[in-house]
Amino acid sequence: MSAAKNTVSARATKAPSWWSRVLQDHSRAISGSFTQLVQKPIATLLTAFVIGLTLALPAGLDTVLRNLDIVGDSLQGSLRASLFLKDSVTPEQAQDLNRVLGKRPGVASSRLITREQALQEFKEHSGFGEALDLLKDNPLPATIVVTPDHHAPEAQTDALMKELVKLPEVEQAQLDEKWLQRLYAILDLVQQAVAVVAAALGLAVIIVIGNTIRLDIESHREEISVMKLIGAPDSFIRRPFLYTGLGYGLIGAVLACAMVAGVALLLASPAHQLADLYDAAPALHGLAPQAVGGVFGAGLVLGWLGAYWAVSRHLHLIQPT
Amino acid sequence: MADVVFFHRVTQRYYKGPQILREASFRLGEGEMMFLTGASGSGKSTLLRLIGSLTRPQTGQIAVLSQNISQLRRSEIPAFRRQIGIIFQNPSLLAERTVFDNVALPLVIRGHSGADIGRRVRGALDAVGLLNKEKAFPITLSGGEQQRAGIARAVVATPKLLLADEPTGNLDPEMAREVMQLFMRFNQIGVSVLVATHALGLIRHLPYRIAHLENGRIDIQSADDAAAPAIAEKLI
Ligand SMILES: Nc1ncnc2c1ncn2[C@@H]1O[C@H](COP(=O)(O)OP(=O)(O)OP(=O)(O)O)[C@@H](O)[C@H]1O
Ligand SMILES: [Mg+2]
């Protein structure tokens, strides 16, 4: 029994398990690259700052877009179509049509304003109250106000409008606040532009990190040469540089989030005033949790890619002399 | 007995350079210790580099530890090199690491645990008489001490084959003798050793074969069997 125990413990000290070996190798690599980053804090911060700035641009644009979208949502009431019904349409038919329209795809909501309600409203708001009593007939048509779903593309909304105009019950249709619809279309376009810009900036981050890692490799030429001489596997030599790349990406992501948060803080009070002016969403929204996740994810992935690119291009050029 | 080094009709010349080796052949047996001599520029370093797979052979056949060097893929070289210990004339220690950390490197890349590394590194440092210098940085060591630290690094992971290129080059005669004795002791525990050296006076009476490089060819001089063992014993 005790002999068996001894064998086990002897094996434990001689051959560590695969997992503990991997853990040990990686923690050694991490501490190595941490030392590397900390040994030259200015250079590290400069690189991370450039990466942070590059990540902050798309993240900041995304935040701006999100805010515009929220403002738009709060103005959504103004994007709607007024369908003026023919006089021949009975109130019951109007009710039915209102129900049907409310259920159509691409329609957010639909509201019926009867002739009586319209007259009542007009009386209250126009100041012609007394004068209108003189009229024998109510001149105002019944109206159905349709609010299209603003997330639907403009083409679809236009098609919807064309169909609404052709309804036999409809005398005339009018789309209000076309500019808001345009805004949404523009926002969509900008969103796509941001995606393209983000991809280009991502490439820039890879190049910046790749170049920095290349210089790191260059300054460790001697060490790499000795490592190869004593038979260190490529993965072993590569690992600290890959972790350094991840480190740059991580610090860059932290800086990017800090920059966007800082700018949002600076813009908070003017945005508040602007929002008041338009009676829109009162507060400026900072980085969304998904955006923070995106920035960190992008920083880490790009850092790793940049490091891997540098390592695969430059490590094999160093051979023991 | 299998050959540790099988060097067969190897021809080597550097790009636009002179012909260094012309169909040179020799064998190093398992557990054998051998010296490599020759004038400066005769190709001793080139030959050791070929065996350590630091230079690609052009023509001829080189097998080391039963592996055909010319067929090694780049990905197979690290594992191959981990089987041999290489000592250069310039010990190439890493300046920003302590003697201990330098010697520990071959164990670190093999994934040894911290405790195991401590034990083995101190063992190797003890063997080369540097136990009191483990925390020193290479720059604070004398040439001989650096050379010995390089030897400790080469043997710490108990290689099957030890290649040394003029390891006594910058040592005084006394120190040179000690280093040679160190190699002989490693050889006695079964390590095959090949040492390139100019120090003919130091090796002439030792019981080992000498491979002499001249005009690109290797001439084997057998050990002075009669006299040598006694001298070797006295040296150790
Ligand atoms: N990388 C190289 N490119 C071109 N020529 C080289 C290269 N390395 C060595 N040589 C030449 O090859 C010849 C043999 O060099 P090598 O270093 O093998 O000689 P050696 O026997 O070790 O000499 P020494 O005793 O001085 O160390 C020399 O003439 C040298 O100039
Ligand atoms: Mg030489």
Number of helices of chain B: 8
The number of strands of chain B is 10
**Helix-strand pattern of chain A:** HHHEHEHHEHEHHHH
* Hetero ligands: adenosine-5'-triphosphate, magnesium ion
Radius of gyration of chain A: 33 Å
Largest interface: A-B, 23 and 24 residues
Work out the oligomeric state of the chains in this entry.
heterodimer
> The biggest beta sheet of chain A, please?
4 strands, antiparallel
Helix-strand topology string of chain B: EEEHEEHEHHHEHEHEEH
Can you describe this structure?
The complex is a heterodimer of chains A (321) and B (236). In chain A, strands 2-3-1-4 form a four-stranded antiparallel beta sheet. The N terminus of chain A is likely disordered. In chain A, helix 3 runs parallel beside helix 10. Chain A has two domains: 190 residues, no CATH class; 97 residues, Alpha-Beta Plaits (2-Layer Sandwich), CATH 3.30.70. Chain A is elongated. In chain A, 73% of the residues lie in helices and 7% in strands. Chain A contains eleven helices and four strands, in the order αααβαβααβαβαααα. Chain A is of the alpha+beta class and 321 residues long. Chain B is of the alpha/beta class and 236 residues long. Chain B has a domain of 65 residues. Chain B is 33% helix and 26% strand. Chain B is built from eight helices and ten strands. Chain B has a six-stranded mixed beta sheet, with helices on both faces. Chain B has a four-stranded antiparallel beta sheet with strand order 2-1-4-5, covered by helices on one side. In chain B, helix 3 crosses helix 4 and helix 4 crosses helix 5. The mean pLDDT of chain B is 88. Chains A and B meet through helix 2 and helix 9 of A and helix 2 and helix 3 of B. The site of magnesium ion (MG) has 3 residues of chain B, from helix 1.
